[in-house]
Task: structure prediction
Amino acid sequence: MTAAKPSRLLVIEDDEAIAQGLRFNFERRGYAVEVAGDGLDGLERARGGGFDLILLDVRLPALDGFEVCRRLRVEGVLTPILMLTARAQSEDLVQGLKTGADDYVVKPFDLDELLARVEGLLRRRAWSRRAGEADLAGGHVRVFGEHWVDFESFEAGTRRGTVQLSQKELAVMRMFLSRPGQVVTRRELLAEVWELPHHPNERVVDNVIVALRQHFEESSTRPRHILSVRGVGYRFVP
Result:
């Protein structure tokens, strides 16, 4: 029997001590790791493909992490991106998610939490691939209102044109579309999409919802499809 290939990680981090520490800890757990020390080098390596996940620092020389992420998504690179940031302000976290990041960890981070986030993203990627191959209520494209979501291409159609969805955005939409009209709690989303039911910060869910409303709602303050259920979660109305 042929052994499974190790997952390939790209670490884009200019702090050599952090980068080598990440390489050491991930390689100990069987991952194959490459390191890039600035944004331009990281962008070129990521464009080359072949990675299962990218760990991307925000504050980078040559090109910051937000711009690296934005360019990759514009170019159609869908590799999951986990941002490493010292910025805990919600607007910075939202900016990272809006540029296409799938998740983030705030420095200084707990290694066990980081490993769990990486493992969760990799499991989610494998699940999304399998689900994309399966029939989803008659096809991989779902339509609601004036919009559509393509679960194979990670694209969505909006009034403003076609947009690229992140892995997390796609997974949340999959859950909403599978439960129209039902209340979906934040805890359910954390367990299903992030695979971390006891995530210490439920804002990660709200940040993805903000991005989805910007895609699909004419007015984010008066949403038609993604409705808030105060203190509980959300309800999706097709």
